[in-house]
Amino acid sequence: MSQPFHETNSHWPDLPPLRPWQSACIRHALDTLSTDQPHFLCQATPGAGKMLMAAMLTRELMEREAISYVLYLGPTTTVVERAAETLAKVTGREMHGRLGAHGAAFTYHALRSRLNELKRLASQAKVLLIWDESHHAAGHPEALADANQWGMALMALERQVRFTLALSGTPWRTDGSCLPLLRYLEAPTDNESADATKTSGQPQQLLQPDFIYTLEQAIQDGVCRYPRLQLVDNRSIRLTSYHPRSGRRENRRFTSIPNLLKHPAIHYSSLLRHDEPMQRLLDLGSEKLDALRKVTPDAAGLVIASDIAHAEEIAQVLEDRHQTVCLVTSKEHNAHARLQAFRDDTSQWIVSVGMVSEGVDIPRLRVCCYLSHIRTEQHFRQVLGRIIRRQGDNDGDCFLYALNEPLLRRYARRVTDDLPEDLATAALTKPPSGPNGTGARPDGTAPADTTSESGTGSSAETMKTVGDSHDSPPSPQVSMEGNGSTNSLDPDVAFSQAFFERLVALKLSL
Description:
Strand content: 15-25%
Oligomer: single chain
Number of strands: 21
Helix content: 25-40%
Distance between the termini: 45 Å
Low-confidence stretches: 192-201, 422-473, 482-492, 505-510
Mean pLDDT: 78
Shape: globular
């Protein structure tokens, strides 16, 4: 494939010009793909424009007659439909998969039922297989026990296709298994990896992408917005628990959510469903979105909920605030049409669980409230990718709000590690003093962690107790205090409005 690559779109004036990273990736793929090296992994930060790059590479390979057909695989129907549109527009060829087409696009879920059909097609044509959001598949020829159905199907199909192109902004799996078709090398040994090898009995494998485009590079190039991440906490928390034998009530005080979550009776997912933390995140998101819409009237916000019922509740809260809301969940029969309509209108908010968490291109999204119970770095970065894609020269920032949960804080810090050095700064707003003039340390821990006190307390300070029976001690109750009073809320947690915000990667150096 030594022919020169023409980077201009003079013959396709309606297509956006290629960005330097896209041109560089295409050139490298054209130089790399061969019979001896048929697989190529592009690791580019979410929002950078991987699909346009893939479509332009497809067009170039077709013009060189290196391939005659393209198969695209993606995680959701919405992502697949969008990819098929891009491929058809860029190549000028039909991608509907029927007679006369030069390509087809399917979800990973549909792959298994069509596998034999696609294998026959690939054996008769020179096929490029594009598998997007590649972290969904697991499998390796030397570790078939770790493969999932999608990974097994990909490995079976790969034997018939000419080339494969893997796309992902987060090409790793939370369960630690390998991705199929990609190159892994044994990781350099240090104390930590040696311990991991000893525990697992297997050497640690390091993925070898063929092309990498980082968030730092994307921000420097003006491709992605600068993410401002804000984690919300509470400075005065009281947990009321009961001794399992004596039934004596014990009150413990905490000065941050991370310390509260160390208690075995309290779980992060339960905090997301209570009014005060949810309202606080929506307050911050709405205030920021209102300010952005004064300059950019179609700017929009995204809320990621924990489940469908949670999403419906959040949508109702926003509508009660006279916000325009699009609810998109798998429960809605016209969810994909609603998603498409939201992309092109001026509604303020879209609320979803998983349908907008990855691969969906809605550049007008600028604000996100993260109320998902999922706490993996992959999911966190994929959600951040929904608001990070720039529309022009005057939308340089995006904003994500979440609770100050330890894992989310770690992921936010890791995002700052991938920011330009002069932008990767962190600041902490000075929290208001507690009832006794105390506050949290800069890392969010309590000065003396917790104190224990016995007594009855007052109804304003503790929740009404709920027990399974009169023979069992009541369940622990949480009260988050401010100025000596709280807003009580059934069934377990009460929050005050005395929140403080932890600002991560928020300060832009001038």
